[in-house]
Amino acid sequence: MITPRLQDALNEQMKNEFFSAYLYMAMAGYFQSEDLPGFANWMRVQALEEMTHGEKFFTFICDTQGRTDLRAFTAPCNDFASPLEAMTYGLKHENFVTDSINKLMDVAIEENHHGAKIFLQWFVTEQIEEESNFSLIIRKLKRVEGDGRGLLMLDQELATRVFVPPTTGV
Ligand code: FEO
Questions:
Q1: What separation in Å is there between the alpha carbon of 31 and the centre of ligand 1?
Q2: What is the pLDDT of residue 70?
Q3: Which of 14, 22, 38, 110 suits a disulfide with 155, CB 3.0-4.6 Å?
Q4: Where on the phi/psi map is residue 76: left (φ > 0), alpha (ψ -120 to 50), or beta?
Q5: Phi, psi (rounded to 5 degrees) for 160
Q6: Domains (ranges, CATH) in the chain?
Q7: 3-state helix, strand and coil shares in percent for the chain, rounded to the nearest 5
Q8: What is the number of the ligand 1 atom nearest to the C-alpha of 54?
Q9: 132, 16 in Cβ contact below 8 A?
Q10: What does pLDDT average to over the chain?
């Protein structure tokens, strides 16, 4: 069982995860329009990962006899001034998600729900990787700024990312 307060917070985070998928598909569309299919591929894989994150929350709420509540979100940003601006926007979004996961963990602790704490631990760790991934690409983009060949090489690198369904966590 989960308390109404914890249920509300879990549903809100489920919305954040599904919104992340929507945002990253919007970014994939931007990169595709810029003839950067590797960046677009990276974002599409990122969006698929976010869908699995949302599904984890859906499953957890059901498994704890809670009630799912799919909530509306606003349209994501579809246009960016440059690849660097887009990836920086993505990192800021991940910073927001990290903050919301941390606050959700605070609720789980205050409600003394040990199962939720263990469930959320996976997301705490995942957010470190998420922020690291965006940060690395941003640093690479800064290195190749103004160098079209370097940008295309980075695009080829990002084209190799493949979606691997998560096997750990609840
Ligand atoms: Fe599931 Fe990128 O947060």
A1: 19
A2: 98
A3: 38
A4: beta
A5: -85, -10
A6: 4-158 (1.20.1260.10)
A7: 75, 0, 25
A8: 1
A9: no
A10: 97
Q: Can you tell me which atom of ligand 1 is nearest the CA of 130?
A: 2
Percent of the chain with pLDDT over 70: 98
Q: How many CB atoms lie within 10 A of CB 112?
A: 10
Stated pTM of the model: 0.96
Mention every residue, 6+ apart, whose C-beta is less than 8 A from residue 39.
28, 31, 83, 86, 154, 155, 158
Q: How sure is the predictor about 169, in pLDDT bands with cuts at 50, 70 and 90?
A: low
The answer to whether residues 161 and 41 touch, using CB atoms and an 8 Å cutoff, is yes
Q: What is the pLDDT of residue 165?
A: 87
Distance from the alpha carbon of residue 39 to the mean position of ligand 1, in angstroms = 17
